[in-house]
Each structure stands twice: as structure tokens, then as C-alpha cells.
Amino acid sequence: MSEKVYIQEQWVFEVSLRGWLLQPSGYYEVATVPDTTGWKFLSTQEAIKLIPELENQGLIKPRLDERLRTEDLKITHRLFDLLDKTIGK
To answer: pLDDT per residue over 6-30, tens digit each?
Structure first.
């Protein structure tokens, strides 16, 4: 009998199906391909369509809002100016 490990529920990208499978929590045999019968499937196209809806519901937030992005750009441009003055001499 082979060793089994416990795996928490997780989304797994399945290249051959071009989509995501929701692997249920449970014990799985090591170094074997599990039976995916009954696992939930989400295609890549469905995932792409889902992202804007999740953003609209506030479940996904942008990593940088416009204010932070503007501040980052100012700092980046200032660093470029300093580098240009230092290296350009």
C-alpha cells in the first residue's frame, strides 16, 4: 500500500483541459494521478469572464489604485533624473 497525504481543498490548473479543477480536501496517494470524477471544473475562458464580475462585487481589489500609481511614477521619474545626472556627467 502506498503512502497517502492529506491535501486541503485547492484549485489546480489542468493543462490538458485548459482550465481549473477544484480538488476536494482529502487523503491522496503520493505519486499517483487522482480520479477527478466529480471535481468542479472552470475553463480558462470562464475564469477570464469571472474576474471583472468579482472586481465589481469588491471581492478582488486592484493592487495599485491611481493615487499610489501616480506616487510611484513620480518616484521612478525622480530616480531616473538622478541617475541621468550622475551617469550622464
So the answer is: 999 999 999 999 999 999 999 999 9
Helices (H) and strands (E) in the chain, counts: 2, 5
Contact 2, 32 (CB under 8 A): yes
Q: Which of 24, 44, 43 is nearest to 34 (CA)?
A: 24
What is the secondary structure of 26-65 as a DSSP string? EEEETTSPPP-TT-EEEEHHHHHHHHHHHHHTTSS--SS-
Q: Give the separation between CA 10 and CA 25, rounded to whole angstroms.
A: 8
Q: Which three cell numbers stand for residue 10?
A: 485547492
Q: Is the overall model pTM greater than 0.70, yes or no?
A: no
Q: Where are the domains of the chain?
A: 4-87
CA dihedral 30, 32, 35, 39 (to 10 degrees): 60
